[in-house]
Amino acid sequence: MRYLRHTFAVIVLAAIAPVAISRPVFSDAVVESATQMMQAARADNHGYELLQSLTTEIGPRLAGTPAEARARQWAVAKLQASGFANVRIDEFQVPLWLRGEERAEILSPFPQSLTIATLGGSVSTGVQGVTGEVVSFDSLAALSAAPAGSLQSRIVFVDEPMARSRDGSGYAAAVAKRRMTAYLAAEKGASAALIRSVGTSSHRFAHTGQMRAVVEEGAAGIPTAALTAPDADQLQRALAYGEPVTMKIVMTPELLPPATSGNVIAEIVGREAPDEIVVVSAHLDSWDQGTGAVDDGAGVAIVIAAARALMGGMEKPPRRTVRIVLFGAEEVGLVGARHYAQTYASTLEQHIVATESDFGAGDIWRFDTRFGQDKIHLGRAIAQVLEPLGIAPGNNQAYGGPDMKYLREAGVPVVTLMQDGSDYFDLHHTPNDTLDKVPPGALDQNVAAHVAYLYLVANSRLYFR
User: Cα–Cα distance between 319 and 92 in angstroms, integer?
Assistant: First the structure.
């Protein structure tokens, strides 16, 4: 009976106790300031001006080349002129791979030329080229299952398409053939290899891209190139006749001794917690065929413009330090990202949150996080502030961007301001990646989202681990 009276009392007290109302993460004043910054950024075209400057004055920026070095000096000048602090270059060495001559042709039964792009890190055929009968596989898995030695002196063709998607999810499946075909085909005895371009374009532009990273060790593989989608279709039609198809491929890339690359870094130093770092980043290098406008000139322009807008939109510096990182040598294996994580290993505990813009110039439509389970609501609160820009809350499996790999693995919280990449892989790693694909004004929504995000996290006392 005593137990029942006690239980009844607890129930009554629980019933009449006031319901706890959770306090908003951000005050009305903070949300209002973030909103004003978003509106101002949408009216400013500084991001496009930066992109035009980079792609016109520098052009292609292959890792380790003099062009990439000029891009670093361009970035230093722009960052200093904008008033950022601690502008510097953290240099490192990267093996220097240079594209040479590249051509392919069907010799029989239907003589004609095909359009190819040598894959990054590929070895050379020599000037005499390689001739052989083509053997087609519909997937990398099918090639892997071929018996050892069964492709002696043949030319392998992996004809695996890539699915178009808004979030680029088709890329993860398709890119494996670019990375691994040269090595699997070599194990089977092949003399050269071709893949269907890792892209979604139906135009006659071949997508290049790195095979195994040049810093990785292992077998050299065999000469390997990407065919444009129309040429891959043409080769497949020729094979469908049932007669042996013989091709000749000539590729003369060079792998030279290591050359200098580097990360360009600049900061807005925090007024109260300068040792707490908010990283916003992009990568400065590009492939050598186009001018790297969408990959990743757009990202470079977005993050510089957003940080500049943050600095100009506040009467005093943010509470925490905002660090801009423009990574070098991303395309050849995240070399700059690895160097950054190693260089700043002792301070990664003070890296509050990080992100990278590396998915072109499409509008941001989703805000993903990788926060501690008890901090997921903070991501939703940030997304709510971004909602007027058409941005919805996403998941808690953000990868942050390619160069965030080592920070993410070290436990640094990351976010992805997910852009609409529906047409990104039409342009990515092709000669068609040029400024005309980015209309004036296309970057403004991205800049607006980034400046609001930076304002919220850099001025708060929130932690996301």
Answer: 31
C-alpha to C-alpha distance for 360 and 437, rounded to whole angstroms: 10
Q: Which residues pair with 104 in a beta bridge?
A: 114, 249
How far the first Cα of the chain sits from its last, in Å, is 48
Identify the residue whose tokens are 């670019």.
Answer: 178
Q: Going along 328-425, which residue ranges are E strands?
A: 351-356, 364-370, 392-393, 414-419
> Could you say which DSSP state residue 147 is in?
P
CATH superfamily placement of domain 28-97+257-458? Zn peptidases (3.40.630.10)
* d(C-alpha 395, C-alpha 392), whole Å: 10
Contact 112, 106 (CB under 8 A): yes
pLDDT score at 11: 39
Q: Which residues pair with 392 in a beta bridge?
A: 366
| β-pairing verdict for 224-227 and 192-196 | parallel
The pLDDT of residue 189: 96
Q: Do β-strands 392-393 and 364-370 pair in parallel, antiparallel, or remain unpaired?
A: parallel
Query: Interior CA angle at 131 toward 126 and 137, to 5°?
Result: 115
* Residues counted in the chain: 465
φ/ψ (deg, to 5) at 17: -65, 145
Q: Which amino acid is at 131?
A: T
Q: Which DSSP symbol is given to 54?
A: H
Domain with CATH 3.40.630.10 in the chain: 28-97+257-458
Report whether 157 contacts 235 (CB < 8 A): yes
Query: Which residue shows structure tokens 């050849």?
Result: 332
Query: CATH 3.50.30.30 spans which residues of the chain?
Result: 101-252
**Residues sharing a CB contact under 8 Å with residue 320, sequence separation 6 or more, in sequence order:** 270, 272, 273, 274, 276, 277, 278, 352, 457, 458, 459
The tokens describing 318, both together, are 């943010």
Q: Which of 108, 441, 430 shows the shortest CA–CA distance to 287?
A: 430
Q: pTM (2 decimals)?
A: 0.93
CATH class of the domain whose range is 101-252: alpha beta
- The torsion angles phi and psi of 54, rounded to 5 degrees, stand at -65, -45
Q: Are 152 and 189 in contact (CB under 8 A)?
A: yes
Q: How confident is the model at residue 325 (pLDDT cuts 50, 70, 90)?
A: very high
Q: According to DSSP H, which parts of 313-375 are helical?
A: 335-343
Q: Which two tokens stand for residue 228?
A: 């444009």
From CA 423, how far away is CA 108, in angstroms rounded?
35
- Residues 303 and 361: beta-carbon distance below 8 Å: no
Residue 103 pLDDT exceeds 90: yes
261, 281, 290: which is closest to 359 by C-alpha? 281
196-228: per-residue pLDDT in tens?
999 999 999 999 999 985 545 566 799 999 999
**How much is the CA Rg of the chain, to the nearest whole Å?**
25
